[in-house]
Amino acid sequence: MEKLCKNPIKAHAAKMAVFVVVLAAALAGEVEGRRGKKARRRALDGDGFEYGAISCRAHSASITEFGGVGDGVTSNTKAFQAAVERLSQYAGEGGAQLYVPAGRWLTGSFNLTSHFTLFLHQDAVLLASQDPNEWPVVDPLPSYGHGRDTSGGRYISLLFGTNLTDVVITGNNGTIDGQGARWWQLFHQGKLKYTRPYLIEIMHSNDVQISNLTLLNAPTWNVHPVYSSNVLIQGITIIAPVRSPNTDGINPDSCTNVRIEDCYIVSGDDCVAVKSGWDEYGIAFGWPTKQLIIRRLTCISPTSAVIALGSEMSGGIQDVRAEDIVAIDSESGVRIKTGIGRGGYVKDIYVRRMTMHTMKWAFWMTGNYGSHADKKYDPHAMPAIEGINYRDMVVENATMAARLEGISGDTFKGICISNVTIGMAVKAKKQPWTCTDIEGITSHVTPPPCSLLPDQGEQTTTCQFPEDTLPIDSVELKKCSYQLSHV
């Protein structure tokens, strides 16, 4: 165990204050830097520009070459489909990139292809079609076995791809607008025939990059990598009304080796929700999410969590590393959601250097989460929750410090919380901690935790955070260029 300084709470608070100031300055500098880059790229639009990507392409085309019209009225679904089909022919010849110039490009769903880049100009907006005929219906995911909104299938995502290798969705902060208000209304009215579409879903794929985009008003989840590996998600801005239903930000689902960083999310649901299948379907599919990095995330979600683990976690979740997170006006900072019938596990979770402002709970563990796929779940399938580590955090204006509720006969074990200062709100609950069916330890935590999390006193401990490097952290972006050429 690491030794702490004599006055760790004050020392950490001072460090975090400096961190917030430095972060604000860095963000301001980044904004100015982006403005400068935008100006340079704008000047180069006629000839080309450079951008960072996991792979560069030998061939290029613009959506206008396939009949695309960026007037916000004309449907471009067929144009995008034709462009991807044509450019897929270059997969074995260095790949291809499709450029979307400035304009408002109305489109329904279209599929992506391997060795392919979709690039959105800073003034390009992909507008999701309001015509249900432009949203094909597909089967539920096998690890879910059931639609999330209805019992049947689901509308395919706006940008979709499966069994892909080396795919990039990026831009100079171009926008994808899901125009979700119609979908939210149908959801609230109970008039949905199928589960709402996501904005971006990539399945059964590897070497995926989603970066430098603004995502608005998704019908439901924004970014959903599922059954995939080596996924890089960075520089994404996600905005939805805070009361919009199920507009999760980024949901890595049964994925391995994922890096999420430098994202800003305002959401009607969890900002990052880590998943791995639902009840008996997830148990049978047995595909965990593991080796996940989350860093430099800023989140606002008044009704949900900044980072949620579950509730669909029946395939297991392991080795999640989150650091340098800022939470503002959110329901909970970190939440584990599970229940009887889920099975699976959530273990080896590490979170450090998190700053929270105006929270209902800093930490929340729920062992009584319902929402089953159907009545076929196994009531004897108990989840295993163990090895949960939270450290080096400052919380301001919290209604409660923590609500930690395990399952009777299935205790949540190995909980460690160290060097955490929680400032309680003026109208905070009289009992800052609620704890049942949990086991663990704490060190230098204010206010004093519940008796099930005894303070180590003189035996000062620091909760773990791995020092090794995951493979996804070694991925570096190449400097790629776009030059318009007819194909």
Automatic annotation (TrEMBL):
Which InterPro entries does the entry link to? GH28_Enzymes (IPR051801), Glyco_hydro_28 (IPR000743), PbH1 (IPR006626), Pectin_lyas_fold (IPR012334), Pectin_lyase_fold/virulence (IPR011050)
For this entry, the protein name equals Probable polygalacturonase
Q: Which GO terms describe its biological process?
A: carbohydrate metabolic process
Q: Which PANTHER family match?
A: PECTIN LYASE-LIKE SUPERFAMILY PROTEIN, PECTIN LYASE-RELATED
The family this protein is said to belong to: Belongs to the glycosyl hydrolase 28 family.
> Does the UniProt entry include the keyword Nuclease?
no
**Annotated GO MF terms:** polygalacturonase activity
Amino-acid biosynthesis in keyword set: no
Q: Which UniProt keywords apply?
A: Cell wall, Glycosidase, Hydrolase, Secreted
Major localisation: secreted
Gene3D superfamilies recorded for this chain? Single-stranded right-handed beta-helix, Pectin lyase-like (2.160.20.10)
Query: Where does this polypeptide localize?
Result: Secreted, Cell wall
Which positions, given as ranges, span the membrane? none
